[in-house]
Design a protein that fits this description.
The protein has one domain: Jelly Rolls, CATH 2.60.120. It is about 15% helix and about 35% strand.
């Protein structure tokens, strides 16, 4: 028997026995209504030792958060179905099924479903932690649509404290004339 095959069967070697995967089955994970959307946390700062946060989102027509900036966290979106209008600074563009969007920290952004059908997306924070704000969302009510939030709902003491601790700034759009469409949207 070679040294390599002896090592392969060595149950004392931690390379073969150490486990640490995070597995969240379909349909599981803490779920809340936040900003009129449904968010399910699949991975959190706590479950990934700070590496990332991953959220499965269902965004109904008209849904999406208020414009904001993550000062300490990058964010990425992957659209699973539907389409979302993405605010990137002062410009907007449409992200559709299969599109990936990376938002570097310090960039004002938001997503909004401007279509007539619901959209699904995954979004990820690196490092993890910002997904924790969703614990201040509303308890889902089966058989009812999520409550759409006004800008005032983002000013609850809990959310304000969380945003201060994690470096999230709310920077709402003044009005729709502020946003500059991209050439793709003008076609």
């Amino acid at each position: 028997m070679s040294v390599a095959s002896e090592k392969f069967h060595d149950t004392q070697d931690p390379r073969y026995s150490t486990s640490g995967a995070v597995h969240v089955p379909a349909g599981e994970g803490p779920t809340t209504w936040f900003a009129g959307d449904t968010y399910t946390i699949k991975a959190s700062r706590e479950s990934t030792n700070g590496s990332l946060g991953l959220v499965d989102a269902t965004v109904p027509p008209g849904g999406g958060p208020i414009a904001h900036i993550h000062t300490r966290t990058d964010e990425a979106f992957y659209v699973l179905s539907g389409q979302l209008e993405i605010l990137d600074g002062a410009r907007t563009f449409i992200a559709g099924t299969g599109d990936f969007v990376f938002i570097p920290r310090g960039t004002r952004h938001r997503f909004k479903n401007t279509g007539v059908h619901g959209a699904r997306m995954l979004f990820m924070f690196t490092p993890g932690g910002d997904e924790g704000v969703f614990r201040y969302g509303d308890e889902p009510q089966p058989g009812h649509p999520p409550t759409v939030w006004t800008a005032e709902r983002f000013k609850t003491p809990e959310i304000l404290r969380f945003n201060e601790e994690f470096g999230i700034e709310i920077v709402p759009e003044a009005d729709s004339s502020e946003v500059q469409p991209t050439p793709r949207q003008l076609e």
